[in-house]
Design a protein that fits this description.
Layout (H helix, E strand, L loop, with lengths): L4 E6 L2 H4 L12 E2 L2 E2 H4 L2 H6 L1 H17 L4 H8 L5 E6 L5 H5 L4 E3 L2 E8 L6 E3 L16 E5 L9 H9 L3 E5 L21 E4 L12 E4 L3 H12 L2
Parallel strand pairs: 1-4, 1-9, 4-5, 9-10, 10-11
Antiparallel strand pairs: 2-3, 6-7, 6-8
Bound molecules: nicotinamide-adenine-dinucleotide.
The site of nicotinamide-adenine-dinucleotide has 28 residues, from helix 1.
Length: 228
């Protein structure tokens, strides 16, 4: 028998217990910065050095962080399910925990790209500096989807959610669109689980089980429910 398709939408909360801060938990600041100052195209035009410093620092944080039991638990589910993880996170903790099918909606901290040509993408573990250029001679920027930028990966994510047999939401406030809108594409009658320290508001979703717990505990409970 083929495995059921289990689709996970994850957000910053799944990495919180790995020491990577979410930003809505800290008064709308991300590590002390206003989002508008570091994560928008306007910020990049105004002060690219500040933006590079911010993401260079984020990259170091992620290098120092380790996947937690929530990441490992979701990776383990691949034994019993056909799992796709759609994450809003820019860290690589799902992959390092062993998940093999991860779609990054908002980019990846270990990638950079030409500021003009979105196709010229490169791996990066160290810092990006002003003056570092892509093959087209343009400045390199983090391969991150900033606020107010289009989210091309949403096109790939929508059909994945539409074809899910089971849908799980973990550690996201569901306020950043279009990512948050993905929940509305899940088939009406499939089982849905929401794991969060504080369950976010969702309108009119059917068949929901809420698990109001930190991600590590919540994923353990999810696994027990799914394999029951
Ligand atoms: N690790 C990362 O890559 C990272 C970190 C911060 C922000 N971001 C970016 O910020 C945007 C924010 O959207 P978002 O919805 O992902 O984050 P968010 O900060 O808006 O929401 C975080 C959610 O996680 C929950 N939460 C916090 N700690 C938790 C825990 N231990 N266990 C379970 N849930 C917990 C909160 O209650 C909240 O609902 C994304 O676009 C993302 O790219 C990424």
């Amino acid at each position: 028998m083929s495995k059921k398709k289990l689709v996970v939408l994850s957000g910053a909360g799944v990495s919180a217990e790995s020491g990577l801060k979410t930003f809505r938990d800290s008064d709308g600041l991300w590590e002390g910065y206003n989002i508008e100052d570091v994560a928008t195209p306007r910020a990049w035009r105004k002060d690219p050095q500040l933006v590079l410093d911010f993401y260079n620092y984020r990259r170091k944080n992620v290098l120092d962080a380790q996947p937690n039991a929530a990441h490992f638990g979701l990776a383990e589910l691949e034994k019993d399910f056909n799992v796709t993880i759609i994450t809003q996170n820019i860290d690589d903790l799902h992959e390092r925990a062993g998940s093999t099918n991860v779609l990054h909606l908002h980019g990846e901290i270990f990638k950079m790209r030409s500021e003009r040509d979105h196709e010229l993408v490169y791996e990066i573990k160290g810092d990006i500096k002003m003056g570092d250029t892509a093959e087209d001679g343009q400045q390199l920027r983090p391969h991150i989807v900033w606020f107010e930028e289009p989210v091309p990966m949403i096109e790939e994510a929508v059909p994945v959610v539409m074809n899910a047999d089971i849908f799980v939401v973990v550690g996201t406030s569901l306020v950043v669109y279009p990512a948050a809108g993905l929940v509305n594409y899940a088939p009406l009658n499939i089982p849905k689980y929401i794991i969060d320290k504080r369950i976010p508001y969702t309108s009119e979703l059917m068949n929901i089980t809420t698990i109001e717990k930190p991600a590590t505990e919540g994923v353990r409970e999810l696994i027990a429910l799914l394999l029951r």
